[in-house]
Amino acid sequence: MIKFGVIIFPGSNCDLDALYAIGKVAKQAVIPIWHKETQIPDVDCIVLPGGFSYGDYLRPGAVASRSPVIQTIKRYAVNGGKVIGICNGFQVLVEANLLPGVLLTKQSTRFISRIVTLEVVNNQTPFSNLFQKNQLIRIPIAHKDGNYFTDPASLRMIQQNNQVVFTYQDNPNGSIENIAGLCNREKNVLGLMPHPERACESITGTSDGLLVFQSIVAACKEAK
Amino acid sequence: MNPEIIKQFNMSIADYNEIVKRLQREPNMVELGLFSAMWSEHCSYRSSKEFLKRLPTHGKRVVTGPGENAGVISITDDLYLSFKVESHNHPSAVEPFQGAATGVGGIIRDIFTMGARPIASYDSLCFDLPDNPRARYLLNGVVEGIAYYGNCVGVPTLGGETRFDSCYEENPLINAMTIGILPKSSLRSSEAKHTGSNVIYIGAKTGRDGLHGASFASGVLDEEAQKKRGSVQVGDPFLEKLLIEATLQIIDEDLIEAIQDMGAAGLTSSSVEMAGKGNKGMRLNLDEVPLRENDLTPVEMMLSESQERMLLISKPGKEDRIKEILNHWELDYAIIGVITDTGLMEIQYHDSQVASVPIEELLNPPITSVPPVQNHSLTPPPLIIPGGILKEKVKQFLQDPQFGSKRWIFEQYDHTLLTNTVNPPGIGASLIRIKDTDQYIGVTLISNGRNSAIDPYIGVQTTIAQCARRISALGLTPSAITNCLNFGDPNQPHTRWELSQTVEGMREILEAMEVPVVSGNVSLYNEGIHKRIYPTPTIGMVGLGSLSAILPVGFPQEGLIVAVVGKTNPSNYNNDTLPALSIREEILHQNLIRSGIQTNLLTSCLSIDRGGIIRALQQCVVYSSMGIECEFPVDTTQQWPYLRCESNGRYLISYQSSNEKAIQELFSDKVPLTVIGHTIPNELKLDRATQFSVEKIVNWYQHSFKDYMEY
Questions:
Q1: A35 among known catalytic residues
Q2: Distance between CA atoms of B618 and B620, rounded to whole angstroms?
Q3: With a cut of 0.85, is the ipTM above it?
Q4: Is the pTM of this model over 0.90?
Q5: Closest Cα of chain A to B108: distance in Å?
């Protein structure tokens, strides 16, 4: 069994969903980790869940990115550990410079919650290896600040290195190049605005997100 | 005491004299503050109590009825459901964003105070017509406020309703409902149990916001009131999220005897009610209250409505562990008092006693009773019949923002969080699964002030019947309700007549359906300078049960037979009387519909209520992109009334032709069953001259309301 750790910041509110999706639906081992921890237990993948860490004070993710656990996660990632940041977790990852770019307020400035269609543009990552390339999948979004932006030079680098993993079919927030999720150069850190943990059982409208977690499991098993 | 001071506390001279009589002395400022809050309508229900006590509150599922922070019913032997609806009308009328936000925060606190984890919220919003710019300004602020608070605190908002009528021009209605689930062992009450137990304050620090909020909400909204923005509280959903987690952990570890949130009238009502419930006394030391500003006076501390605060009574010896948990969540903690056996509320400040009054007197204001007098001054204008041929009428209906998609609203609310949402918002009743069980919860929250203005007795019964139809159309059994009675000035004889008729109407139908009331709230004084609102009872109904099938909202395929269950009586359309309601038939039809769903005979089922058959057809077409070819059972002059009338007891169903015989047998001679057509792709064909493409219907539906809000 593959072991996941879900980081909990004050104000995280998708932590329970992540624990449920990984533990009960994907049937893997999963533990919660409080943000003040400086030692991370031995896990195969770290999840930074969605929510409003520190109430989005200052900027979404800004305060959480200074939490004690982030320094440890940085070392973990440098050593090749897999990290996935979902929604607010993505915002934390860019604030912590684990991923390039920024997440601006969406163009209409209103919060948006709906199921959107994504295209899997890179299926050669630990987070997407079970998808077909160019597969269209349906996953919910729920955010206000998910408008991805970066300068032209970084964008070129990101594209050259195939770091973009998911793009929106019908861009809901103004993200540059329709980017919904991207990873670092080394492909072991992924950030995405859509919520795969909310898309694991068909009763809630779509189960396409389960393949994200199953991809991670497959990648971890292969690495072992 | 100086009458000016008494007036500042929004208190009548008669009430003041009553206090002097009961105390046999003049109250001091702090004591006057306690009385002004506790005797306000908001805290005491002094002018509505006599009506409310007539409502049925018992039933086999009821665990906790009205009187606690929220009602509780049982889902299974070990799992409970807590829920309540509450108004935040006055604050939202003067400051829509914070008014609505703190309304959401308040109702969520009521739920986790019971020991339940909040899992969904709903909102009933009534505004003036959307072509009024001020109505749009208020609606925009209210929706943003609900989204800001609900999304951040981590409780999905799964639905509700939006209504427009000019009677809400000065007094918009914002009623928020939250539901939560809890294991049986987590149920807590607010009743103080043991003398000597410590009273603990947790959560946000106390500031000056919301001073006199309870008495502000218990007066009419005139120009003076519009200046009272300072009476509106400011919410911090992040702090409330921490408070939820800390509180549920404290309950889970069984560290407290009792718990109460500090809502209206803050520290005053929470402390008085807790001690009063257990027939105890309480001694508070205000020097210990965590303050935002150091110079707050004792009166201000007692009346502040700063949000995100709770009062706990700890179990002996558990104080240190409670403190540890609060430190973990970075929340304030202070032991501010102790439970006594004196029956007195005693308040200490700077080493002297600043108040000492019997709690019984605080909890028992003189009852206001004006005899009810029937009055039809509010009779609404008749519905406008759209002009032109049938096609023109249907087109106008399909473009009406009242019946257009409210996606602009509900997409601002996180509605997929917690992964229990089975039906997305927008279709009247929401369906929630309960993880690790085979049980489902159906919830609907609706009001209809116009109907109640025509006839408050039948009006509220119609609303309750509609709720029950929506729940039954999911396949679930109506289990209990919560209600919010939004009315005008209770000192007016006509308001009392409306209240009395409403409560009697509720009592009759709820007793017949065996659906109890387990919680609720009363919002009176919804009057402005020019207008008073229609009497508007808002009903939140929950249904429970297991499901053998989850039906789609629209028609799942072509070639299905579409039929109306129940009798359509077009002659009722546009009268100034309401469509007839037979409670017996409602119950019979609900049972048959549920059994049709549970035996997998139906391929779709939608209750027919507001807007009639045409509304139900619109919903089915939009949600399935499937059309219908109609064969009308009436002649051409009756087509529009047939499509638009709101006869009760009806459902729009579809089924496979292979099940026709079984369907006939199910309904047989018990209920009229009228086939009105069959499903076809791409088009709604009402008759040869009245046809619309599905694409056009969807487009109108998506834009008619949204275009008012985004221009």
A1: no
A2: 6
A3: yes
A4: yes
A5: 15
